[in-house]
Amino acid sequence: PGRAPVHVFHSADAWVEGAAVRQLEQVAALDGVKAVAAMPDLHPGKWGPVGCSILSARIHPEIVGSDIGCGMGLFALDLPVRKFDAVKAASRLGALDGAWDGDVSAEVASAGLAASPFDAALGTIGGGNHFCELQAIEDIALPEVAAAAGLDRRSVFALVHSGSRGLGHDVLLRHLAAGG
């Protein structure tokens, strides 16, 4: 009563910090919030939970916080499970920890974007709880839903949890300084 519904999208076995759950409930009680969804990467943030989606009639910048763009994405690879080599994959994924060795300035310019102090972080995962892992599906509970989403047991997928690498913190500070 008095708060928006909270939907949970992680298994009952997942460990979620109590502080994140309390923040989720606080967000659900905010003005204009219509629904809140807790994702598998839910964890406490400075002003609100990280790893949630909020359907709201207004923007609450302090909840977005300093890691704008922090989230998870699942990407199907063109690699069949039968050809997957974990050792080779691990050596290649290690490169995601460092900065890209290409011409960042040229890439930013070719995308029509202005240079920023955060350009060197483009293409990197981030620190803290950010990661990239390769996964294969072992069991499918709803075959028709999985098929519609392009998920099957024959493919390898990359699950990426990344953040804003300093840009989000800068955007938040500017917004709060402007009285937002």
Sequence-ordered SSE layout with sheet pairings:
Elements: E1 6-8, H1 18-28, E2 33-43, E3 50-56, H2 61-64, E4 71-80, H3 86-93, H4 104-110, E5 131-136, H5 143-148, E6 155-162, H6 167-177
Parallel strand pairs: 1-2
Antiparallel strand pairs: 2-3, 4-6, 5-6
Characterise the protein shown here.
This protein has about 180 residues and is of the alpha+beta class. About 25% of the residues lie in helices and about 25% in strands. The chain is built from 6 helices and 6 strands. The protein has helices spanning about 20-30, 60-65, 85-95, 105-110, 145-150, 165-175; strands at about 5-10, 35-45, 50-55, 70-80, 130-135, 155-160. The strands form 2 sheets. Strands 1-2-3 form a 3-stranded mixed beta sheet, with helices on one face. The protein has a 3-stranded antiparallel beta sheet with strand order 4-6-5, with no helix packed on it. It is globular. The model has no long low-confidence stretch (mean pLDDT about 85).
Keywords:
180 residues, alpha+beta, 3-stranded mixed β-sheet, 3-stranded antiparallel β-sheet, 6 helices, globular
